[in-house]
Design a protein that fits this description.
Length: about 290
């Protein structure tokens, strides 16, 4: 994910700093009571001051960034949902734990913070250009997902023995049961499912992509041992025009100078005449001194 978006994600979500009921009682100083006890009450002002001290800059920064940047840039609900879905796919069953560890009480809080990150991305990419040549070059370098099965053994001699038996007509799945040390794939006949580039061991990946569907490799050494690989399926790349928008986004993000994003945001705040009235937070948007 984007570096500055990750920074926002690990912050607390947007908090209801002024949370209280409409019929709350008031104290003698006219501050609404949010908690009552025999030991004393907690007022809205006390809550605000405590939360401001702990989280004030984080929350105010997120709120101001969102309000100012939304005047010039648009982030749709669909764009936010796409980023959330990517996180869910990446973390799977660990996604709820990610929310909790990052300080979000709900997915909606994550979406609010995610939107601010995407607004910053729109700002950072506003002057970045991606040429047709760059798009074509990127597309030509893409590889489709492939599906492969393997037999993993400890040494090259055993791998050669397995390959010889396969050449003599032995069933791949039977030799998986007999030889493979990858217990996780043995029940599936050695099937590793579909995968793309950058997922497997580099040597394994190179050998797998060099095969034709149905072809079986010779011994391939990786950090895990020696593999006999069978390519079982290969997807087709979508046409360039169907992938153009995604490619432009990827290439544009790669060109972003992340060290300049904060300065760009502060420039937007200056142009919007942002003035913090709270004395404790008054200087929070001033550029850092070198």
């Amino acid at each position: 994910m984007k570096k500055y978006l990750l920074v926002l994600m690990i912050s607390i979500g947007i908090l209801a700093l002024a949370a209280c009921t409409n019929n709350a009682e008031t104290t003698t100083d006219d501050s609404e009571v949010v908690v009552e006890s025999e030991a004393g009450s907690i007022t809205k002002d006390e809550l605000y001051e405590a939360m401001k001290e702990r989280y004030g800059e984080q929350v105010l920064r997120e709120l101001v960034y969102g309000k100012v940047l939304s005047e010039k840039y648009e982030v749709t609900d669909e764009e936010v949902q796409k980023e959330v879905d990517t996180l869910k796919e990446q973390y799977g069953d660990q996604f709820p734990m990610l929310l909790q560890q990052s300080g979000f009480k709900s997915e909606e809080q994550l979406k609010q913070t995610m939107k601010v990150g995407l607004l910053q991305e729109k700002l950072a990419m506003k002057d970045i250009e991606v040429t047709d040549e760059e798009i074509q070059e990127h597309y030509d370098a893409l590889k489709p997902e492939i599906q492969a099965s393997h037999i993993l053994v400890a040494d090259e001699e055993t791998a050669k023995e397995v390959k010889q038996k396969l050449d003599e007509g032995a069933a791949f799945e039977k030799l998986v049961e007999e030889y493979s040390t990858d217990a996780g794939t043995v029940p599936a006949g050695g099937d590793l499912g579909f995968f793309g580039t950058g997922v497997m061991d580099p040597a394994f990946e190179e050998a797998a992509y060099a095969l034709e569907v149905g072809e079986i490799s010779g011994p391939v050494q990786s950090q895990f041992g020696f593999h006999i690989i069978k390519l079982t399926d290969k997807k087709q790349l979508d046409p360039l025009e169907d992938m153009r928008e995604t490619i432009v986004e990827d290439l544009g993000r790669a060109k972003v100078d992340f060290t300049q994003v904060e300065a760009m945001v502060l420039q937007e705040l200056e142009e919007a005449n942002v003035e913090v009235k709270d004395e404790d937070l008054k200087n929070m948007f001033e550029p850092a001194k070198e």
